[in-house]
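Incident review: delayed structure delivery

Summary: a single-chain prediction request sat in the queue longer than the usual turnaround. Root cause was a stuck worker, restarted by the on-call engineer. No data loss occurred. The affected request and its eventual output are reproduced below so the record is complete for anyone auditing the incident later.

Affected input:
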Amino acid sequence: MTTNTRITIGDSEAEELIMLINDYSGYDFSDYSMPSLLRRFQRYVDMNKISDFKQLLQDLMNDSAMINNLIEEITVNVTEMFRDPGFFICARKELIPILKELPLIKIWHAGCSTGEEVYSMAILLKENDLLDKSIIYATDINQSVLDIARSGKYSLEALKEYESNYWESEGPAKLSDYYSIVNGKIVMNDELKSKIIFSTHNLVSDHPFNQFDLIVCRNVVIYFNKSLQDNVFQMFHKSLNEKGVLAIGSQETIMFSPIEHKMEPLNTKWKIWKKKA
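Output delivered after worker restart:
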């Protein structure tokens, strides 16, 4: 499995891997976008210099840690603080006034990955005197990225980009007000962490678990096929309080989904929707 011969993952190989993962871990990726899975499976075999597909299947069956590593490769999504600054400008102008009217604010960040956008939302709430009456539930299928998110520790190498994003999002303070640097790492402030609950949740198979005023799930459902997207959108709709708000990725849409006529657009550019009364 360590020679230089390269194997190519096609549809049939991907289907075998999907079945094996389901059989040995219980995670079902059959409704994920096949092009996305093909890219991620290929990345996995290339990074690990795997040259024998049958041996790969055998190794996966005999090594649960190896299956977990493969699952992590499938589920990790790239994120950053104040990613898409325009979205956060929109949030400041259009979401914050809605949230200010509520006695208690419950937010769900679904597919939170390593948590940078969750802390960005907490900062946004703090800057508008809303953090004390807020609770943010941040979930992901991947326990490894949740561990990073829960720690609130990030690489200093990313700081310049984070600072730039914050400035472009029209942040009124300094991003450095919300973190300290410890042992060469950015460490988010405890005040922010105290308002966030991190937990595992599988959008494919798990049920709604609360009612929320705002659900943020950006650039996650783009990796699902249409059927799974529809199921997830229906779950989000059920999980929203009356007049609750859903924010999805700029390349995603609820158009032609079962909830399209149950939501009204707040911002079409940044794909923010409000539940109809």
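Verification: The first strand starts at residue 105 and ends at 110.
Action items: add queue-age alerting; document worker restart procedure.
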